[in-house]
Amino acid sequence: MKRFLLPLLLVWTGVTAQDAEVFKPDSIKKELKAIQIHHKLKVDGVLNDEEWKLAPSSPHFTQIEPFQGNQPNHHTEVKVLYNNHFLYFGIISKDSLGKKAIRATDFKRDFNALQHDLVMLSFDGFNDQRNAISLGTNAYGVQRDLLSFDDLYYDMDWDGLWRVRTSRSDSGWVAEIAIPWQTLRYPKTADSIQNWGVNIYRNRRLTNEVSALSAFPRSFTAMRMNYAGKLTNLKPPPPTSNIRFQPYFLTSYDHYSGYDTSVKPEETNFKVGGEMKWAINTNTIFDLTINTDFAQADADRQVNNVSRFSVFFPERRQFFLENASLFGVGISRNPDESGGNMRIQPFFSRRIGLDDKGNPIPIEIGSRLVYRSDKRNFGAILMRQKELGDSPATNFFVGRFSENFGKQNRVGGLLTLKNRPDGTNLVSTVDAFFRLSDTHSLNTLVSQSSSSITGKNGMTAYAQYFFVNNQFKIWWTQSIVTKDYDPELGFVSRNDVVATTPGIFWWYRGKRLPFKKWLRAWEPSIFPEFYHQASTGKLIERVWTIYPIWLNLQSGAYLGYSINPTYQYLTESFEPLGVKIGAGEYNYVRHQVYASTDPSRVLNLQVSYSGGSYFNGYLDGADATLQFAPMPHVSLSGRFNRNHFSKVGEKQTTTNVDLYSIEGRFALNPRLQLIGFYQRNSENSSQNYNIRFSWEYQPLSYIYLVFNQQSFNPYMERVRVENHAIAKISYLKQF
């Protein structure tokens, strides 16, 4: 540890001198004036309604990437109109190459921003300079939307009710957007005129040029709302209680073969349910779900895991994704950004309605109440899970409260309760976040669990410091999880551990950077991880992850190399992919190479290779994904993953474990799509198919046809096959 502390302090000394590059928000905000009209516009992406001539053009945008503060090479013009029902935006993205320059690889909602031209709008209706509603589109009218809180937590899969149409020409592309007032959040005031915080950014993907209406440091995002401009002259209708009903009808057919007689060979079911969303006022939203169904949610992809710890699968179900940031306290970022391989979440929504293998358990009824304001936030979730097989009927409660104070500080609490006939699991948590300055922040948490089933109590705690400017990202995370900490409604990557996980990233774009026409930044980094057993104090794991090479190209391609000297003390054996490794001490070194072509091109490739010693043997791992997208209507990708073990484990095993994947997306337009994927895993001879047809026949109203097949051989005796066919229709009505 001491060998790491000295270079960290030396880097810190240099960092503080360069902090000035993170400039302060402009005291004079750029203004975008909205004009009131009295007619409904035809939203077609052409901007040929006469009313558009009344709207003044926006101020000039400022370049964020690659040269912060410069004028953009490709200009963007924004106009704003509104009536009693909609707020309209007309965005003209000019381009000297016209539609030849446009990049888009698919029609997936919430598309990958690295693969598309896009424009993104962020609104701060309450002017608290903390929270934002963000709506975006690519050049083909595919929607991307999210909620942002303190530019720190994000509801990435929130889907708002709004409409966009686009057009493409030899001079660029145009987006015409209509946003119902009910989708936005703003106060009820005595003033007839309101001014909101707003920012708009554009990525011209061919050259990766990012520009924005109001400039912000490139190490932040456009959702850091204290850097936003102003949307002026708004006269929105007074916010009223609005209600959205979304009932559904579903029919399914299930067929099983290879199982014992306790499983019905085939079954047909019908199901009716739905959801209601009631915006009680501008701050408070109540959600109700009955006979909850997630047939349309993306299925989990298989992962071949060679680590000692469980794979963390993200939440994909829409009901739980909304307002997830309010309840999602804990260490949950990527391993290279905060807590190493530690993950501590007192609440993890996949513990509701899913078993440990990701299979659905029916939810009978559930509700959620959320209140947000510039002063405080609170929320509650109450769910009832039906009995299924060995899983008894279970009640779940989650309560959350947080108080905002100062510029961007917060302290809060979280309570989770899981109640079954055989006992109760209770977890209570206190957390805090302090934005010490634009570049310094501190995140902390203390959590305690108790279980009446086991009679055991446990706790976890961490403190996480961050420094971020345009040259460096530095963090230090110190965490502890006791042996008996057991959040049955949460997720922890490991127990009985004290973890020390510091790290440094350096974004170098200086004068000595060569090949600037192609190379945007050299980004070396180092983030060691030290794990001691909490109950004994013994060192059980030490990993140095060192990236001497990480090159980000102007095109979005990258090339990287890392080396990982590793020490492991296994207190018990474990079995990665069927290879048993015994308890004991191990020292080994692994190497990784990462590379990607431009991800926005018609044909793009991502590859990674890892090799070197692995416990008492050797392991070579290769992973390659090739995507072919000749047009955004058609996207095909194939992935191959191989792990080659050589003389590993107690039996000196040498073997290959392969995982193949094929995925296709075919779209007539952003609202009518056919998606399918296939996976084959040699570890357990499993094969999975998933085919999903979706038609959004009106905004947020869908028809789904889903077919799933799973075949596997768990005991190498006989193949088990499951076939599931599902048809579902939902209808959204907003009052």
UniProtKB/TrEMBL annotation:
Classification via Pfam families: CBM9_1 (PF06452), DUF5916 (PF19313)
Span of domain DUF5916: 243-353
InterPro entries assigned: Carb-bd_dom_fam9, DUF5916
Alphabetically ordered keywords of this record: Signal
Limits of the Carbohydrate-binding domain: 43-192
Protein name: DUF5916 domain-containing protein
Residues making up the signal peptide according to the UniProt record: 1-17
